[in-house]
């Protein structure tokens, strides 16, 4: 029995389905969820995607966002089948799933704990979008241009536009087939890559004006104090592009941004390239994340905070801790 | 007759071949030239790639760079077949090609003037690497992992890691096949995306320190004069990342960089997003390229050059020429 047939048989009784994505929704979970919702809609079902807040501005161009409903965290209605997309465990889905609701768990995280009644987990897939594509293709479901666009966004965002180490020959083959199926590359490009706010460029300008690189070139950091950010209305500006730029520099292992989001309150972003576990460092300051990308927020004087974080990072770079 | 058979028949007599790339060699011309050189080498020929200087640091990881020879500009030896890769016209090849040397012209630029004795020009190809791949595949040539790596670099660099509008279903299919053939994605990622020279970051810093954006937000430009570049040894620094960053800004249609590579000699890079054909503008100043990415080199005062180019660009943004 194909995964698609199995999904259909689980959903057959209720004719309804709740699709859930993880908190801090990204392109992969949103694109995957929407493509799946489109396919269920085509079957005459009433799929709904619940999310606790407005989805990020950058993903509002995705086709089908009218199927996304804002719903406060809490319990879900009883007995309606739930499809969790791109969620490693039950905690990631924001809502409490009633015990009598069947759960279909579709994911690609290595940390997935098989929390579903039915689990479709492929840790070799670069994105959940790859798995959804295969389920639909193997199930003989027609993939419309809108669905192709959603799945393309899912895959391209989770692979850093096909530049990360998670991509495989299969990833590129699927991307090729999605373009063939009518994925709207112009819409995607315009919205994902060509609408970066001017505030981001101004933040890069402000950050590079005073960036520091250690003598051995392994540690790069920059400091954005409240006055600088406030003057140009850059407090809310995204710094993902900036820290990516810093981290990409030859020889750099750790990149840090110190951003004073209010006076005396500093958001620290940490990225590493190969061996330093920045999650450990962020946790020392009450934050966390992944081994190569983490963050924390520290109260105090920005310069003292910078000194303290640098003191914590340096032994990992030179002393072989965690190397 | 396949293109490959034709190429082989042209080269058959001399058993030698000179492969030429364009000045300011990029990933596409170098990767394409190296893959081609590997394939000719396999046939027992002695291909050589001439280039007037050391190739950019970022591409020295490419397999086969020992086939690249530094040779001062001037005349090439008589009667040896020349294969020009990714060159729109004879001027781009740096060297003087003797009139008795057959020329094979392999390119994807719309401005290509068919200067070859035999021309393989496909302006729909996202990269010259795509054309080389097709020639080799159609010719039944075995593509080794090293060749696959070279061609993958060619395609991924000319498509901004598969994010530009020039990509097609075919581009992604070729990328998929190259990964299948052993293209070394880890080597590529580490070298292309994680070893950006510090000079690039310093160039972005210098450029953003004085960037200008027009009142309507459609035109963004920055000026790097010789003194600024020379002081920090940034003359040779790559500006592709910088211009990509400028162009990605929301609302920007045209991004320009004015780079004074020697006193009184200014390299202008032009990029557009949706509708301005910058190739036409570059050609007005003796340069060329593609409709969304072009360049020219102009002698004179950098500020006057900037004024002249801006004067030329503005009507395309506001007046609907070419819209």
Structure overview:
2 copies of one chain form a homodimer. In chain A, α3 packs antiparallel against α4 and α4 runs antiparallel to α5. By secondary structure, chain A is an alpha/beta fold. The first copy, chain A, folds into 2 domains: 191 residues, inorganic pyrophosphatase (n-terminal core), CATH 3.90.1640; 121 residues, Diaminopimelate Epimerase, Chain A, domain 1, CATH 3.10.310.30. Helices cover 37% and strands 19% of the residues of chain A. In chain A, the strands form 2 sheets. Chain A has a 6-stranded parallel beta sheet. At the A-B interface, α5, α6, α7 and α9 of A face α5, α6, α7 and α9 of B.
Query: Which pair of chains has the greatest number of interface residues, and how are they split between the two chains?
Result: A-B, 48 and 47 residues
User: How many structural domains does the protein architecture of chain A include?
Assistant: 2
Identify the strand order in the major beta sheet of chain A. 3-2-1-4-5-6
Shape, per Cα inertia axes of chain A? elongated
Note the total helix count of chain A: 11
The CATH class of the largest domain in chain A, by name, is Alpha Beta
Kindly state the number of beta strands of chain A. Answer: 12
> Any idea what the CATH architecture of the largest domain in chain A is?
Alpha-Beta Complex
Low-confidence stretches of chain A: none
Q: CATH superfamily membership of the largest domain in chain A, which one?
A: inorganic pyrophosphatase (n-terminal core)
Cα distance spanning the termini of chain A: 46 Å
Oligomer: homodimer
Question: What does the largest sheet of chain A look like?
Answer: 6 strands, parallel
Average pLDDT confidence of chain A is 93
β-sheet strand percentage of chain A: 15-25%
